[in-house]
Design goal:
alpha+beta; single chain; 39% helix; 6 strands
Amino acid sequence: MRSKAYVLNFENELVWVSPIINNTCINCNQPTCSKRGSPFLAANPNKLEIKCGDIVQLGTSTKAQFFQGIIALLLPIIAAAGGYLLAEPIAQLFEKTVTESMRAAGVLLCLGISTAIITIITRSKLNLSKPLIVSILQKNITN
């Protein structure tokens, strides 16, 4: 994640920021020509001297990126392999001979379930880690 945000307020060790949404002017740092998103909390691990009104660059920790990669890539692969392998015991449970179409159905079913799990995790309000303030793009000159 790399995005720009406008500093709104401070709360303990965290900073309230509002993302700057500028789809048309990517290199623009002016908050006046951009929309603002919903405020959220970000961490300032580098202890940068930021003030209200500053525009900052946000990033994500490498641990969070690693976890996202594991969940998004390995979970569907493991689920698909599990669906392929579970087709035979399930077919035996119903006293059927396993066929390739049953294995394919098992793969698709488990892949669908893993996709639903990933969607629920990513769409929920569960924040496993806070975005990080990486740098100051523009200082507020009025403060």
